[in-house]
Design a protein that fits this description.
The protein has 259 residues and is of the alpha/beta class. The model has no long low-confidence stretch (mean pLDDT 91). A six-stranded mixed β-sheet has the order 5-6-7-3-8-9, with helices on both faces. It contains seven helices and nine strands; from the N terminus they run βββαββαααβαβαββα. A hairpin with a 5-residue loop joins strand 1 and strand 2 (26-35). It has two domains: 12-77 and 155-257, 3-Layer(aba) Sandwich (Rossmann fold); 85-153.
Length: 259
């Protein structure tokens, strides 16, 4: 008796994606990518290579000029988006900033309170519920932005270089916090970065971009039998991943220099 294996389709499929802006700039060309359920996928590349453009296409904030974006579910799943700038309302305290997505859906503060409290607990900001953005550090503002993105309990979290403007110590701390959050929620994460080290530390898989035109030139799987904590940085999986990602990125940039 033979058993047939049922193949689970990817959560998201991008086929032949291209994006040309009105001024003629080709941001993306011929981009193919499949995103699996529950994975942490980093989009790695230099500034201007189309990573953020691709993230905005996935979010539906812009439309591709060519190709197709398809979700395995009949309807697109709920998405959360975390931008590089926390984009907080300066006149509102943390609670009211985090409430915003539900408020826009007509949910009262009283009815949203339990979910707000849960989101703030997840990002370690319970004690700062009544603080205003001007009273928070850069890292704390980013935590508020992350809590706000979690309010709709998204199946997919899109993150556009969220830690790029932070100091190195804060960035490392938030990397670890994000991994713990991922372990708790199981959310699929697509994360844009230009840091090789950050991409290898966080990801199950890395899509490396080259520019002119923006395209994916290689995907790198990061296998690890150890927990993703600071000890992972000493493993061969991490060191080999960093070496391969750096080599791929430098090769792509060298090729561009000769165009």
């Amino acid at each position: 008796m033979t058993h047939q294996t049922t193949l689970i389709p990817p959560l998201l499929s991008l086929t032949g994606i291209g994006k040309t802006f009105p001024n003629g700039t080709i941001a993306l060309a011929g981009t193919d990518l499949a995103v699996e359920r529950g994975e942490f996928l980093s989009l790695l590349g230099p500034s201007g290579c189309g990573k953020s453009t691709l993230l905005r296409l996935i979010a539906g904030l812009s439309q591709p000029s060519d190709g197709q974006i398809s979700w395995s579910a009949p309807e697109r799943p709920e998405l959360g988006f975390v931008f590089q700038d926390p984009t907080l309302m300066p006149w509102a305290d943390v609670t009211h900033n985090v409430w915003l997505p539900l408020r826009l859906k007509g949910v009262s503060l009283a009815n949203a309170r339990q979910r707000i409290d849960s989101a703030l607990a997840l990002v370690g900001l319970t004690k700062f519920a009544t603080a205003y953005p001007r009273e928070l550090s850069g890292g704390m503002k980013m935590r508020v932005s992350l809590a706000r993105a979690l309010m709709l309990q998204p199946a997919v979290l899109l993150m556009d270089e969220p830690f790029a403007a932070l100091d190195e110590i804060t960035r490392l701390k938030l990397n670890n916090d994000l991994l713990q959050l991922k372990a708790k929620l199981g959310t699929t994460i697509i994360f844009v970065t230009h840091s090789v080290y950050e991409s290898v530390y966080l990801s199950n898989r890395i899509a490396v971009f080259a520019a002119r035109p923006g395209r994916i030139i290689r995907t790198i799987q990061i296998e690890s039998d150890t927990p993703r904590d600071e000890s992972f940085r000493q493993t061969s999986a991490y060191l080999d991943g960093c070496a391969l990602a750096s080599e791929t990125l430098l090769g792509a940039m060298s090729a561009e220099d000769h165009l």
